[in-house]
Structures are given as C-alpha cells and as structure tokens.
Design goal:
By secondary structure, this protein is mostly helical. It is 53% helix and 6% strand.
C-alpha cells in the first residue's frame, strides 16, 4: 500500500497525465472532420415543442424555430471550419469535405429557408431592437454590423464561389466587401476598430476577422487595394498592440485613454498569426508591402516560440504559466509556423516548435476525434482573472476549425533535422 501511495505521489509530482492519441496528423484531421460531417443534420427545431422540420420554406412565421445543428449556424467560427474542410478536401482529394461546405451554404442561401429567418429577424427587431435578435438563428446574416457577422463566413464563401459559382453567394460576398470598405468602423489611419468596450478599441481578433476576407477578396478580384488594406491592418495592429518587451500582442488597445488591455491572450495572438499566414499565401510577390508583412510575421514567430509550454501547448495567457494549456491558440501557432517553414518565410528550425505543438495538441484529441481544451468565446475585460477563469468546451467550431487547419498543414510538413557537431568538424581548419 505504501508503495502505491509513493507511486501516485511521484506521478502527480511530474505534472498532469495526458492520454495522447497515437494518430497521425492526417488521421486526426479525418477523424475530426468525419465526426463533424456525421453530426450535421440540416434540420430546424421548434425550441418549445421539439418539432423537427426539414425545411421552413412554407412554414408560417414562428419565433421559436431555430436551426437545429451548431454547424449550420452563421458564425465566424463556422467560417474557419468551412475553410479548414475545403483545405482538407484539397489535401486529401476527398471531395466530401468540400461538398459538405457547399451543402451547408446551399442550405442557407439556395433552398428557400433564408426568407423565413429574414421575416423572423424583422419581426423581432421591430419589437425589441438589437437585443431582441441575438438568439435568432442566422441573425448575423441580416445584421451585418460587425466583422464577426460576415468576415470569416464571407471568406469561406469566396473559396466556395471560385469552385461552385452561385448568384446568392456572390451577392453576399459583395455585400461583405461593401461593409468592410465603407461601413466597418475605422480609426483616422484606416485601422479597423470597434466601438466597445471603449469607443475605438483595437481588437487583435479583428486581424483575422478582416484579413481572412480581404486577402481572399484580393485573390478573387485581382484588385491590389484589398491586399494593401490587409497589409496595412497587419502593420497598424502591430503598431497599436505589439509589446516589444514581451514580444507578444496585447488583446486590445483603447484609443480613448491610450491604454492596452491587461492580457497577452493566446487566441488573440493566434488570430493575428493565422491572418498573416493567410495573407502571405495569396499576396503578390511584387506587392510593395509584402516584405514588411514577412518581417512582421517572423518577429511574431520568434516571440511566440519563446512561450511554448513544456507539453508543447501554449497557455491561455501566454506569459502566465499558471494559466491552463489551451488548444486553439496552440493550433493557430502550429498552423502558421508549419506554413511559414514550408513557404520559406521562416527558418527550417521552426518546424521543431510546430512538431512539439502537434504533440501537445494530440493530447487534447481523442481517438474518436473529440477535441477538448477549447476556450469559449472571450471578449475584453480589464482583469486577468477573467482570462484565467474562462471555461473550456469540447467539440465546438471555436476550436475545431483552427485545429483542423493545423493538422492539415502538418500532414506534409518537413521533419526537423539537427546538424550534428561531428558532421561539421571537418570544416574547421586548424592553422599551424
């Protein structure tokens, strides 16, 4: 009995036990994606009666009807997941992943369902204003007031439109472009900002919310102004949010009192990193701001690498090792580093950081493709306690999209190779 107690004490002293899956990056990505496809229902549900509908096209207006499956929601997290599923289709040659995205978008735009929710939205807004529409399905399609409403979902539609053209898709893409060009709140220098929690607060999250769309719109239209806007967002966000002492981004900057937020939040830094990787992948080689973005990307990669935890994961608050290990920020860093090494933006040594990150991620993924340690949606608050205590969740698009993107990039990533000292000795010439 005494030996058992000593053994348990020894195990506890060495840190948390992790049940790491033995799957490869490819196997894990397929497991996660197949689970998502299998659980997507394409149905509607009456929240009061439980009645299920396959279509609401002919249904009389009912304020209790909702989309039944979270993967059909119109939300920026599903935009990232849609992008990941299309990348998985391209990498594996399995068309079903791209077809699932097409089916999702047709379910929204091309099967007569959207008009029901437009009428629901208009009735709720007329009665109770902005607060009355928050819990309605697809309200973000009609609201269109913020990048969370249309940025990443619009970005995924651009990817789809190039392969499966649709007038409905194109119309929404153009509406999103108009919003970004003319409606989205910006500072005097063009930096995208929000009107909360302070007026004109710069959020690191918005780097991806905007650039995911702007970069793809540049490629889609061939118009340089989209690449220029995206690059300027990267450089301006760095000017407002970068902490040179920590080599990390703050979550926010309040322009009214000229103060940064309290946290170097992991996912906020991840959004900026993933945005730059997406932009550089499509930005013309001769664009005058391309090298500045590459330099910025390298600076962030060097900073991020210094905060990787002992299990390969990054912490919820990057510079606080007593905050929990979290998978979404980790996935974004792994994704960006893997892509950066493969594209030559980063030194090959960085792939070792990505390899350790992948090992850490796999401790949070089950053999059934369940993804854990996903921090819930997180706004800005003026206390570190808020970030420490954010709950985690399982199998949510908030984490599944970034995790899939990281796994896909790691499928064909080069392996780290170390130059041994003894291999170099012959190059040293000793003069006598």
């Amino acid at each position: 009995m005494k030996q058992i107690i000593l053994l348990v004490a020894l195990l506890l002293a060495t840190g948390p036990l992790c049940a790491q899956t033995k799957m490869t990056a490819r196997e894990a990505a397929v497991k996660i994606a197949d689970r998502i496809l299998a659980s997507t229902t394409y149905e509607f549900k009456n929240a009061k009666t439980g009645e299920i509908y396959k279509s609401v096209k002919e249904l009389p207006l009912n304020m209790d009807v909702r989309v039944a499956c979270k993967y059909n929601n119109w939300h920026y997290t599903n935009g990232v997941t849609n992008i990941a599923l299309m990348e998985l289709a391209a990498k594996t040659g399995e068309a079903k992943y791209e077809q699932s995205v097409l089916k999702n978008m047709n379910f929204v735009f091309n099967e007569g369902n959207l008009d029901f929710f437009r009428r629901q939205y208009e009735a709720a807004f007329k009665k109770g204003g902005w607060s009355a529409i928050r819990n309605l399905s697809w309200h973000m399609i009609f609201r269109g007031k913020r990048l969370d409403d249309n940025g990443p979902m619009g970005a995924s539609l651009i990817e789809l439109q190039q392969k499966h053209p649709s007038e409905a898709f194109l119309r929404y893409i153009n509406e999103t472009a108009d919003h970004l060009n003319y409606g989205e709140p910006r500072l005097a220098d063009g930096t995208i900002a929000r009107l909360w929690p302070h007026v004109n607060t710069v959020w690191a999250d918005d780097a991806f919310m905007a650039i995911s769309f702007l970069a793809r719109m540049g490629k889609f239209t061939g118009e340089e102004r989209y690449f220029t806007d995206a690059a300027n967002q990267v450089l301006n966000y760095t000017r407002y949010l970068w902490c040179p002492e920590k080599q990390l981004y703050y979550h926010c900057y309040h322009t009214d009192n000229q103060e940064h937020g309290v946290a170097h939040w992991s996912r906020a830094n991840g959004w900026v990193f993933m945005a730059q990787a997406d932009l550089l992948a499509v930005m013309p080689k001769d664009h005058p701001l391309r090298q500045a973005v590459i330099d910025n990307f390298r600076r962030q990669a060097a900073g991020v690498a210094r905060y990787q935890g002992k299990h390969g994961l990054w912490h919820q608050v990057l510079d606080k090792e007593d905050s929990y290990e979290e998978i979404t920020g980790t996935a974004m860093f792994v994704f960006g580093i893997a892509r950066g090494v493969k594209q030559g933006w980063l030194h090959p040594d960085f792939i070792h950081v990505a390899e350790q990150g992948l090992r850490g991620m796999l401790t949070k993924i089950s053999d059934e493709g369940d993804v854990t340690a996903i921090c819930v949606g997180t706004g800005i608050m003026p206390s570190l306690t808020f970030y420490y205590n954010r709950p985690t969740q399982k199998n949510d698009p908030m984490g599944e999209g970034p995790v899939l993107r990281a796994l896909i990039e790691m499928m064909d990533a080069p392996r780290y190779t170390e130059i041994k000292a003894e291999q170099q000795y012959d190059k040293i010439v000793i003069k006598k």
